[in-house]
Each structure stands twice: as C-alpha cells, then as structure tokens.
Design a protein that fits this description.
The chain has 362 residues and is of the alpha/beta class. The protein has helices at residues 2-14, 30-36, 60-83, 96-106, 121-127, 163-169, 189-202, 213-225, 229-232, 245-251, 261-270, 285-295, 309-318, 322-334, 340-352; strands at residues 21-24, 44-47, 88-90, 110-114, 132-135, 148-150, 178-182, 207-211, 235-238, 254-257, 273-276, 300-301. It has a 6-stranded parallel sheet, sandwiched between helices.
Length: 362
C-alpha cells in the first residue's frame, strides 16, 4: 500500500489536476490507511470482493478465494468502465489479477510494480499481460524479459530531516550508537525474543529504540524495569512510530528488521547498516531480498530460525566498529533509488497520453 500511495503523491506533485482512484480488497485496513494519508480526501476509494492478501496455510479461505477472484473479474471490468482511467498502476499480488485482466480487455495501459527480488506467482502472471513491469532489484528483470525496467521502490520522503536533530529528539548523545529494532508493519516475536535475551549486554554498547508492537509492550516494559537503573534510559520500547518513523531511520546507526522491499529501499535511501531477518513465509520473498542486500555488502542476513540473543549480540558487537558499519551503510546507499516514485509517475503519465515511455522504461 505505501509504495502505491507514494506514487499517487508523486503523480499529484507532477500534475496537480490529476484524478486518482484507489482500488482495495475486502481484507481490512486499506480504506483506513488511505483515509489517513494526506491525499485521503482526494482519493476515490473502491473495493473489490477479492481479498488483497491470501492466508498462509489451509483455511476456509482456501476454497473461498478462487470464488472471490472469479467474482472480482466482472466487478473490475464494470469499475474500469465506470471510472474510465487513462492508466492503471498496481503493486502486484492477488488483488491485481482481476484489475489487470479487466484493463487489458478494455485496452487500458497498465504498469505493474514488483518490489521483491523473486516475484510472486500472481505478479508473474499479470506481468505477461501488463504494458510494462517496474522492478526494484536488477535480478528481477530476468522474470519479465523485454518488458521490464528498474525503478526502485517508491518510499516516503526523507527530505528535510536533519540527522543530529533527529538523534537529539530520541535522546541519542554524541558518543551513543543507536540500534533501531522494528519488524515492518507488525510486531515480530522472533525479533522481540532475541532483543530480550541480549538486552543487558546489548545496552553496554548500544542505545536501543525497540518498536515491539502493542502485543510486545508488556514484556518489553517488564524487561526495562528489570534492568539496572543506569541502563534503563538506554532502552526505549515503543509499540510503533507513525510520523516519527522517518526520523528514527535517519537517527539510527544500525537497524535490526525484516527484509521487505520497502524496508530495504528505505535503509538504502538513508544509507544505514542493517541486520536483516527475512520473514520465512509468503513464498520466502524476503529471503531473496536479504540475500541480495548481503551479497552487495549492504546488510547482514540472518535466517529467521537462527536469530537468537547470542547471534544478535555477535553481529551487533561486530558492527559497533564505526568503520565496518559506515562501509555497510555506504554499500546500502549505492543501491538507493530515492526517485522511484517520481520515475513511476512519469511512466504512468506517458502511458495515459499514449506517448513513448521515458528512456529506460520502454
């Protein structure tokens, strides 16, 4: 969702008069997040009967999802006929299937964005039907030969965030090194457990800002109270950060987190070293992302089932060395494409006018 909203904002920046519609699925929170976005009041929201995400494992949805998908195809056809878009942009996945099918049938140009090194099955299918496919990582080009280009991942803007001011806001002193722990959009028990096991020794070297989720706050608060008084001020658990998340990334010296496409892109944009623990399910897409980052020297990759307090402490100790950490951050920054949202907006506008695509996107 966030990459899609970043592109919507870039479109509005380039063309203030552009009309934007957002299409979500029946699974929960899209409507709320769109409404909370600065463009929320201007985005016309539509909902298909298909779910935007599929469940892992067997459940009642295993049988219902194909029926919802079949029902969503004529619904998408009707929706595109009623709204009459000049172009369709999708971030892929299950929800995109009926939209791209309907757009192709109506002759509407489509741009699909794939943020992972290894594309999912749904994106592989719709990538063959789309006008063009944008990808975040160079290896992904091989999955869509002759119809893809590298755009990077559309992310939030870090413009105007001054590092020293951000560090002061989080209580980070000149001699401190800040470890930021977060699991993306949800709490991650694996990360929380490793931090808890390593905490007293970790705080000897690092100030820790731990985004542990609502579910993890009770345990994190108890762990903080059990610390020696001198260490308590060095450990700050928070359920999550909203408008301060960009500041936290700029303030950080090291990040422990998952390896989603947006996380990898933001780490690169900021140029911060990281320990990436890929989510092991959902086709193991994050594992390929983490491997790519590690192969480029931009991160340390640790399999989910191998992250322990001792493993975390070992990597955190090695990366307490400023030179090693700066080298890793510099490697990450070389992968950055902070102009991704702008690039995708320009491609979409060219598509909408049936003009040749910008150089590199054709």
């Amino acid at each position: 969702m966030y990459p899609a909203l970043a592109v919507a904002q870039a479109l509005r920046n380039v063309r203030p008069d552009v009309e934007l519609d957002y299409v979500g699925g029946v699974r929960g929170f899209e409507r709320r997040l769109v409404a909370d976005h600065p463009l929320g009041a201007e985005l016309r929201y539509h909902q298909l009967v298909v779910r935007s995400l599929r469940s892992a494992g067997l459940s009642v949805h295993t049988a219902l999802d194909p029926a919802r998908l079949a029902a969503a195809i004529p619904q998408a056809w009707w929706l595109l006929g009623r709204t009459g878009p000049s172009a369709v942009f999708t971030t892929g996945g299950y929800l995109a299937v009926p939209l791209v099918l309907a757009a192709r049938a109506r002759g509407i140009p489509t741009l699909v964005w794939e943020g992972n090194v290894m594309p999912g099955r749904a994106t592989r299918v719709i990538g063959r039907l789309a006008t063009s496919v944008a990808v975040s990582f160079p290896p992904t080009l091989d999955a869509f030969p002759g119809r893809s280009f590298i755009s990077g991942t559309p992310i939030r803007s870090f413009d105007g965030i001054e590092r020293e001011a951000a560090r002061r806001a989080f209580g980070v002193g000149a001699d401190d090194r800040l470890l930021l722990v977060f699991g993306g959009s949800q709490a991650v028990a694996r990360l929380n457990s490793a931090v808890a096991d390593a905490l007293p020794r970790l705080l000897e070297q690092w100030r820790v800002l731990h985004l542990c989720g609502e579910a993890g706050m009770s345990d994190a608060g108890a762990a903080r109270e059990a610390l020696p008084e001198a260490f308590r001020q060095r450990y700050t658990p928070e359920p999550f950060l909203t408008d301060r998340m960009a500041d936290a990334l700029v303030a950080a010296d090291l990040v422990l987190g998952r390896a989603g496409s947006s996380t990898c892109a933001e780490l690169a944009a900021v140029g911060v070293a990281s320990i990436l623990v890929p989510y092991p399910f959902a086709g193991a897409h994050q594992r390929h992302n983490a491997r790519f980052m590690a192969a480029e020297g931009a991160a340390v990759a640790v399999p989910d089932d191998e992250l322990t307090g001792e493993r975390l402490l070992g990597h955190a100790t090695a990366l307490r060395d400023d030179q090693a950490r700066v080298a890793m951050g510099s490697a990450a920054r070389r992968l950055a494409r902070p102009e991704a949202a702008q690039t995708l907006a320009e491609v979409l506008l060219a598509m909408s006018k049936r003009r040749p695509l910008p150089t590199g996107a054709a």
